Amino acid sequence: MQPTSPAAPHRRLYTEEQRARRDATRWTLVQGILAPLQFLVFAISLGLVLWYLATGEGYAAATASILIKTFLLYTIMVTGAIWEKVVFGQYLFAPAFFWEDVFSFGVIALHTAYLWALFTGQPHGLQMGIALAAYATYVINAGQFLWKLRMARLDMEAAQ
């Protein structure tokens, strides 16, 4: 029989001070509004992009939706950096959200690559392919943040 090692102690997502700052700042509400709004725009845009790719129709609508999604992504990244500064004392790469921030830069890079493709007149298929790659990374990144939200809720329940 193998000896078992004790489980590593659970590292809480927020200290009490960080939780208090998180709960007190308006940037938490801003993120709470922007995140579902961005997801809604993503879902609509994904449908428009897929429609365009399937039918060849609706390029302008798909393009407009990708531009709106990209604007929201940039906005949530800036406001999220401000939120991290308020809560953790640094604009990005706070230990609690390090990997989410790293992956966010990949998401931003792909959205920016889409803008490059659009503004340099690359073929529409390439533009939409880049948009789909950006959207795939966005879904993974959103999942990372949803996981952290779940962890924070579990931490709160354990603290009560």
Keyword list:
5 helices, photosynthesis, hydro-lyase activity, single chain, 79% helix, BCHF, 160 residues, chlorophyll biosynthesis
Describe the structure.
- It is a single chain.
- By secondary structure, this protein is an all-alpha fold.
- It has one domain (16-159).
- It is 79% helix and 0% strand.
- The protein has 5 helices and no strands.
- It is elongated.
- The model has no long low-confidence stretch (mean pLDDT 91).
- This is 2-vinyl bacteriochlorophyllide hydratase.
- GO terms for molecular function: hydro-lyase activity.
- Pathway: Porphyrin-containing compound metabolism; bacteriochlorophyll biosynthesis (light-independent).
- Keywords: Bacteriochlorophyll biosynthesis, Chlorophyll biosynthesis, Lyase, Photosynthesis.
- Its EC number is 4.2.1.-.
**Mean pLDDT across all residues, rounded?**
91
Class from secondary-structure proportions: mainly alpha
The largest sheet is:
none
- β-sheet strand percentage: under 5%
Radius of gyration, in angstroms, nearest whole number? 19 Å
Strand tally is 0
The dominant shape is: elongated
End-to-end Cα distance, whole Å, is 37 Å
Tell me the count of domains: 1
- H/E element string? HHHHH
Low-confidence parts: none
Q: Treating each run of at least 4 consecutive H or I residues as one helix, how many helices?
A: 5
The amount of helix comes to over 70%
GO biological process, one term: photosynthesis, dark reaction
Keywords: Bacteriochlorophyll biosynthesis, Chlorophyll biosynthesis, Lyase, Photosynthesis
Protein name: 2-vinyl bacteriochlorophyllide hydratase
Pfam family, one: BCHF
